[in-house]
Design brief:
The protein is 46% helix and 13% strand. α1 packs across α5 (124-144) and α11 runs parallel beside α13. The longest helix is centred in the first third of the chain and has 24 residues, at 39-62. It folds into three domains: 3-23 and 155-259, Glucose Oxidase, domain 1 (3-Layer(bba) Sandwich); 38-144, PtsI, HPr-binding domain (Enzyme I, Chain A, domain 2, Orthogonal Bundle); 263-575, Phosphoenolpyruvate-binding domains (TIM Barrel, Alpha-Beta Barrel), CATH 3.20.20.60. The radius of gyration is 26 Å and the shape is globular. The protein has helices at 39-62, 70-82, 86-99, 103-119, 124-144, 171-174, 195-203, 214-217, 239-260, 284-292, 316-329, 366-371, 373-386, 402-422, 439-443, 445-451, 459-467, 485-500, 518-523, 536-544, 548-552, 555-560, 564-575; strands spanning 3-6, 8-11, 14-21, 162-166, 184-187, 207-209, 223-227, 232-235, 276-281, 297-302, 335-338, 392-396, 432-436, 454-457, 505-507, 528-531. By secondary structure, the protein is an alpha/beta fold. The protein contains 23 helices and 16 strands. The structure holds phosphoenolpyruvate (PEP) and magnesium ion. The site of phosphoenolpyruvate has 10 residues, from β10 and α17.
Length: 576
């Protein structure tokens, strides 16, 4: 009987291979007190270790090939920045000086202090930063012990059919792994926002995270099946299971290859209606994938990526450069830049109260921009200047109602006026749209649509706020019901109102990319879907099998249904 290790699926797909179990980089921390005359030398020893760690990482950074995922590069840069940060450079030195403790102990205290600060932040993003600190600390500790950092980078052997089992994986270690044929990852720590998860996804390698004690349970060389779809790993599977999973794996690969043929195909329903597929993007490399898979443009570009990993927001010039790069990379396809949507699950030190008691209902999205107009103005100016290079629209997040939309538009007009007066080159008439993701905005849709040039329905938040279900809380996940009658009524009425008023409307929440909901959204009259670029081909295929006209005839019955089961039953009338 195979042993099952369960965790959380972080990167989809099936991986089968032999385990390579990586030992943790951690060692026992020696702790001792120094004589006053030893302190100077100990500080020098610490500084030398930091410099050595920096040197090691610089070598890794220099050796990164061009095919390396941009995340790997970003993480290494983050680690290099941390190796310059006072919290890890000067604080331990202070501890050595003030407490006469040895360098390892001082480093441990500095790390504990940082972790205590992270503990206060109930936030996945900052938990992921905790992993960064831990990895950087281990690197310095390794240098203090004269122990070279664990590295897969220098191994030249192929990793064909290898499953890496580790406590965590450092970005620097990931370079080249996918090209060397790695089968999967089983990681003890982390959730779906942890580095290992993000990187595994960007490499397209199946991964299960949060598998506690994996390194104790798995022996080197044991056969493993990793199911990244369902979030578990099987140790020593029997022949029958192995055959079954190999078949599934083969099927997945065959399907992925088949879907690639749809890259240039138009998105059309079986009865010939054109549907526009837009992509959601979070970083520049998503734009290329979107275009390769045939997206008509970017329906949602989350600009937060520019503001993360730092204490100070980016200035106008940096934003202008970044947005201009994005516009140019779109080669004439439209780009929808959403203004900053920091807050709730993505906190930044931009002036919010870190102890905000209920951040999901707090100062987030457009509210933050209206409270700090200078922050907003800087971003607006950068967007309007970048729009000179190609078609751009601006999207406002978390609008609560007409007043938010009017105030934001007034600030945009003000910025335009200033730029005109100073002779700054910018694009006139950039369309300004709004996210409909707060129920109040959906209920006030007739006014919202009138004020805005286009709207995009953000179902991730619309469902959360309509149903009072925290979208990130596993404990209430079963009540997070996209097919709840209240949610469907809101989506449907926003679409109807926008269509009646002749304004473009799209839907950019996760629902758009989930093919279980494609028939439903067609039935509600949606024609513009915005989704992660990796989902575009599958959606094209699903659309090609659906008849749109009979689905449209089911709208009234769908809106009268009591929930998921009944909606599914009604849809069967048109989908069989
Ligand atoms: C949404 O809420 O549906 C949305 C697309 O925005 P985000 O997921 O960035 O909150
Ligand atoms: Mg949202």
């Amino acid at each position: 009987m195979a042993l099952i290790l369960s965790g959380q699926g972080a990167s989809r797909g099936i991986g089968i291979g032999r385990a390579r179990v990586l030992e943790s980089g951690g060692v026992e921390t020696p702790e001792y007190t120094l004589d006053p005359d030893q302190i100077g030398a100990e500080i020098d020893r610490y500084r030398a270790a930091v410099a050595a760690a920096r040197g090691e990482l610089t070598v890794v950074a220099d050796r990164l090939g061009p095919q390396v995922a941009s995340e790997v590069r970003e993480f290494i840069e983050t680690h290099l920045m941390m190796l310059e940060d006072d919290a890890l450079v000067e604080s331990p030195v202070e501890f050595i000086r003030a407490r006469s403790c040895n360098a390892e102990w001082a480093l441990k205290q500095a790390r504990d202090q940082l972790f205590a600060a992270f503990e206060q932040m109930q936030d996945d993003y900052f938990r992921a930063r905790r992993d960064d600190v831990d990895q950087v600390v281990k690197r310095i500790a390794g240098a203090l012990a004269n122990r070279p950092a664990r590295s897969l980078f220098v191994e030249e052997d192929a990793l064909d059919d290898t499953v890496i089992v580790a406590d965590d994986i450092e970005p620097a270690e990931l370079n080249g792994l996918a090209e060397r044929g790695l089968a999967a990852f089983v990681i003890e720590t982390g959730g779906s926002l942890s580095h290992s998860s993000i990187l595994a996804r960007s490499l397209g390698v199946p991964c299960v995270v949060g598998v506690r004690g994996a390194r104790q349970m798995v022996h080197e060389g044991q056969l493993l099946i990793v199911d990244g779809d369902r979030g578990f790993a099987l140790i020593d599977p029997d022949g029958e299971r192995l055959t079954r999973y190999r078949e599934r794996q083969y099927e997945q690969k065959r399907r992925a290859m088949q879907l690639l043929r749809l890259a240039d195909a138009a998105a059309r329903t079986a009865d010939g209606d054109s549907i526009r597929l837009w992509a959601n993007a979070e970083q520049l490399k998503d734009l290329d994938l979107a275009l390769r898979h045939g997206a008509v443009g970017i329906g949602l570009f989350r600009t937060e990526f520019l503001y993360l990993h730092r204490q100070q927001p980016p200035d106008e010039e940096e934003q202008y450069q970044s947005y201009s790069d994005a516009v140019k990379r779109m080669h004439g396809h439209p780009l929808t830049l959403r203004t900053l949507d920091i807050g709730a699950d993505k906190q930044l030190p931009l002036g919010q109260d870190p102890a905000e008691p209920n951040p999901a209902l707090g100062l987030r999205g457009i509210r933050l921009s209206l409270k700090f107009p200078e922050l907003f103005r800087t971003q607006v100016r950068a967007i309007l200047r970048a729009a000179v290079h190609g078609p751009v629209t601006m999207l406002l997040p978390m609008l609560g109602g007409p007043d938010d939309a009017l105030r934001a538009r007034a600030l945009i007009r003000e910025a335009e006026g200033e730029m005109r007066a100073s002779g700054t080159v910018f694009q006139e008439g950039v369309p300004v749209g709004g996210m409909i993701e707060v129920p109040a905005a959906a209920i006030a849709a007739p006014r919202m649509v009138e004020i805005l040039d286009f709207v995009s329905i953000g179902t991730n938040d619309l469902i959360q706020y309509t149903l009072a279900i925290d979208r990130g809380n596993q404990a209430v996940a079963r009540w997070y019901e996209p097919l709840h009658p209240a949610v469907l009524r809101l989506i449907s009425s926003v679409i109807d109102i926008a269509v009646a008023m002749g304004k473009p409307v799209s839907l950019c929440g996760e629902m758009a990319g989930d093919t279980r909901y494609t028939a439903l959204l067609l039935a509600l009259g949606l024609t513009d879907f915005s989704l992660h670029p990796r989902g575009i081909l599958e959606l094209k295929e699903t659309l090609s099998r659906l008849q749109r006209k009979p689905l449209l005839g089911l709208k009234r019955r769908i809106l009268e249904a009591n929930g998921t089961d009944e909606v599914t039953e009604v849809l069967k009338l048109a989908t069989g």
